[in-house]
Design goal:
alpha/beta; Rossmann fold; 379 residues; seven-stranded parallel sheet
Amino acid sequence: MNTRRFALVAGEASGDLLAGLLLDGLQARWPGMQAVGIGGPQMLARGFESWWPQEKLAVRGYIEVLRHYAEIAGIRRKLKARLLQEWPPMFIGVDAPDFNLELEAALRSRGMKTVHFVCPSIWAWRPERIEKIRAAADHVLCIFPFEPALLERQGVQASYVGHPLANVIPMQSDRSAARRALGLPEEGTVVALLPGSRRSELRYLASRFFAAAALMHEAQPDIRFAMPVIPSLRDEAQQMLAASGMAGRVQMVDGQSHAVLAACDATLIASGTATLEAALFKRPMVIAYNMNRMSWRLMRRQQLQPWVGLPNILCNEFVVPELLQDAATPEALAEATLAWLQSPDEVRALERQFTAMHEQLRRDTPTLCADAIQKVLEG
């Protein structure tokens, strides 16, 4: 069996980053290994061969997925047929559970080894997914320390590998250097706007964020705003910015979300992996989300915890505000963000909590992933 060829699917930007680090571990363990499937720029930079563009899978929300279901299902069907024909020794699904778990189950039922990287958040919502995970994965690589015990109680083999971002993001970031790199003034207040990396998120959140920025600018005219944007969404984002009347006051940056988070004093941010990144940068934040109304109702019905933001989930309390759906008004977003800028003692306390979280999540993730994958292959 050729253990130097792996198939991976990472369905969005956060999964691409995780998969890139996993590939580092595989390449160190098996020099010359090949990896194929569906991935993004971090994976491509490591020699990954992507058979479809990653953007085809980057759809979020029940209604949005339904609109693209035929295309996504067609990609999964063709991918399964190709993998069964080429037969790599292992398939690794990186996050994107709605796409990957079904594919993993189909491949595993035919005898292919399967690993799922990132435990679906069964502890937060949709606990019925445990049945799918049990059928789909020989092993789950977990990024949070409490997850392996939860899975093993349900008969699923799992390993805690740390959160890759905890090693990518320094324990202390250089705010001044980040500002110089982005062409921002070293002095003064900078607020980062991160409405999300998907087109659907941009459409539902960006106009609210720009309106909130306008209110913050009105209250505190010296605030500067910076917003990372995926190059393919830049034109759309700039049109929305122009319509908001904030053109010239929000500096858009192609990618570089980490530089923007390092540079800022606070961030207005979409719920998702980016909130954990902001926490690892020790930045105070206001978490927001807005989606199709029907998608929202369906999601709320299945929610098991009072929090949706990862920093709050990991701290087991509301350490940062969450303004979701109808609560995510420009006025509320602006008020909550300004509150952080006016509360230095609370910011310092939050930084201490985020530092403890960072230390808990920091592990040698690439090596631990390779260790677990080697055991599955040999098993």
